Each structure stands twice: as structure tokens, then as C-alpha cells.
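input
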Amino acid sequence: MSNKYIPHTEDDIQEMLKVSGVHTIDDLYQDIPEQVILKREYDIPSAMSEIEIRKFIGGLSEKNKICSIFTGAGAYDHYSPSVINQIISRSEFLTAYTPYQAEISQGTLQYIFEFQSMMSELTGMPCCNASMYDGPTACAESMMMCVAAAKKKNKVLYAATLLLHVRRVLTTYAKFHGVNLVEIPEKDGVTDKSVMDSLLSVGDVAGVIVSQPNAYGIIENFTGYAETIHAQKAIFVMYTDPSALAVLKTPGEWDADVACGDGQSLGIPLNYGGPYVGFMGSTKALERKLPGRIVGATHDIEGKRAYVLTLQAREQHIRREKANSNICSNQSLMALYVTIYMSLMGPKGLKEVNELSYSNSHYVCDELCKTGHFSLVYKQPFLKEFLVKTDLPVEKLQKKLLENSIFGGIELRPGELLFCVTENRTQDEIEQLLNVIKSML
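output
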């Protein structure tokens, strides 16, 4: 065999080529443009022993710079209990995949069921699925749900205060699904309800998407939104930070129809953008429009508690063109991760996370404003993120912070920095941030 990891013999390959109606493996790739085909050997180093590979990988890891993180914008540095990695590293969890056969997948089905139950409690929604790739695609799937439920309407409104990367994913999905996506402008850092009301009054809107907290870290007030949206027979969608929902009014309490977001803030470490896990919950009326799957609890013939895949509105089980979504994975391992996190933290722990984050972020904000070189852009309530305007040279400031192993605020607009301070930041780290900034004054 040419490669010990590929079990096919040369006879196997020739037989498959014959059935496929081609003569060589290269014939299978004839549609690929010639200019993108690699015509040399792969630049792969020689095989290494275990000792050599450990030293090699260790050398790569030493190039990483460990920084104190004072940024957020959809990716939050919350504390992750060490016991989580010990539990998810067990073989039955680490190798878990789609539980097609319920009779041999009871463990997997149970923790997915617990994930759904905990997310339902956090969001205040009657049902939640399991689960989505990440927050932005979960939001895009919510947009598609709005159109699918409305049937004859394809216009969806979204708040300008949604996170930038979420808006970009929405725009991409809308373009290729024929959705008429319209932005609701912001006013004083929050959604301009008067404009939303005007856009809704035309009567051709399938859904409205807002954010809580929003892209500036502001806690928005959605009083009257549900009544206005529902009066026009549109669907009310809230993109949320699930960690913050432990202390904020939930989508269910705001009478939203759909709640979606990214589960990363529930203890998943920052890791170059992933892996994350999206979530989506809805009212009972929209339950069958949820993408992905829903695990349910029942009893077997002996009366013992058992778990089954109750709803699977996906392409593998029904015609692709009839599927509500083409999501093919339930991000099972990451769903398990946040399930363990939520069970360890509990309501009290999640509340404490937010109380500490609130205290830390407001302290940093106050101290920055006291310098006279920073000011809040919006006089609005915030939880752990805030946007400040500064007269200091931002590029120079960020460089100075990085030199001191501090990942500082993100520049959203010229001269405006978005800071985030979670419970993970110690008092020493906070004082170091402030001291470095003050040294530039």
C-alpha cells in the first residue's frame, strides 16, 4: 500500500475507478482549474519520535505571548474551572458524535438533553435545540426561521447595534437566500425604536433581530418591542450573551419568539476563534421550525428513563429543499463543555461572575475617565463592556499595552476603544493596565 493509513489496495482503487467511469484518480479532479493544482511534493518534515514532537510543539507554544485580556466584542475571557477539561477528556465524551442509534447513545443524549434544559432556563424560552456551530450562524439561522415561518415575507430587520461579525454573517446568508435584510439605525448607542416602528408599519417584515447586551456592551431597554413586532405578525429575535442572562431580563421575559447567541461566554476558553457553540431557543409555536435537533426524555419498555432524538429538522432525515437548515453537527463536545460549566457554577456562581465583571469594568471605566483623557461615548447602562473616546494616540496606546503583556481595548471607530473587564482579571492586572495608560499622559 502507498500509505499505511489508507486501507485501499491498488486493486480496490482500480475497481472503484472503473465503477466511477474514469481511468485515473486525477480524472476525478478534472474540474479543478489547472493553475490551483499543486505540482510538487508536499513540504512535510520527516517523521519524529514522541520526544522530538513534544519538544517541537513545546517550542512553538513558547512563541505565544500570554496577555491580560481587556477585550470582548463577542469573545469573552471568563474563568473556566479546571475540572471541565478532566471530564470532557474521558474517551466516551471526547469521541462523541451524532447519536444516530439511541439505544447505544444514552450518555450523549442525556447531556444534550441537560444542555437544552439549562439553556431554556437561562433564556426563558420553552424549548432550545442542540445545537449550532457558533453565535453568528445561529443568528443567521434565526433569520431564515423568520422567513420560513412568515412564508410570503422575506424582509428581516436587524439592529445596527449587533456585533459586527454577526452582521457580516447575516449579510452573507441573506445574499444567497434571497432575504431582504434591512438595518435599523442606532441612536445614542441603542436601537432606534422609532425607525423600527416605521419600517414595521409597512407590513412586509418577517422578523426583527436585536442584541442584548449590544455591540457597545450597553444593556438595551426593549419595552414595547414585542407588542409592536407582534402587531405586524413578525417574529421577535434576540441575540444574547448567555452568561449575562444570569442577571439580565431574559428573552422570554421580553416576550421574544427566538433567542440565539454564542455559548462561548459560558466558560469556553479563547482559542484563536474557536471551537465555539451556538444556541437557539424558541416559543412552542416555532418549535418545529428550529434547525438542528431536540432531544427528549421518555421511558423504555421496562419503564426506565430513556432519551431519544425527538425532533430532527435537518437534511439527513428529510428532503434537502424541505429542511429548515442544513446544519449537520450538534457541536456535541462543546455543548457538553458549557453543560458542565453551568452545572458547576449554578445560578449563584453565574450571578457572582456577572457581579465581579460589573464591578471590575465600572472601576476601570471610572479610573480612565478620571484621567481627563477618556470619556464614555454613550451614557447608557453597561455590564462588563464599555466604549470610551480618548484623545491619546490609539495605535501608540495599544502598542504600549502589548509591550506590557496587556491586550487592550478594540478600536471600533477612530479614537473610540471598547474595553471588557471580566471576573478573570485580578486587581494587580487591572492596576497594571491603568498604570501603563497613565504613564502615557
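quick obs: The chain has two domains: 68-78+347-438, 83-341.
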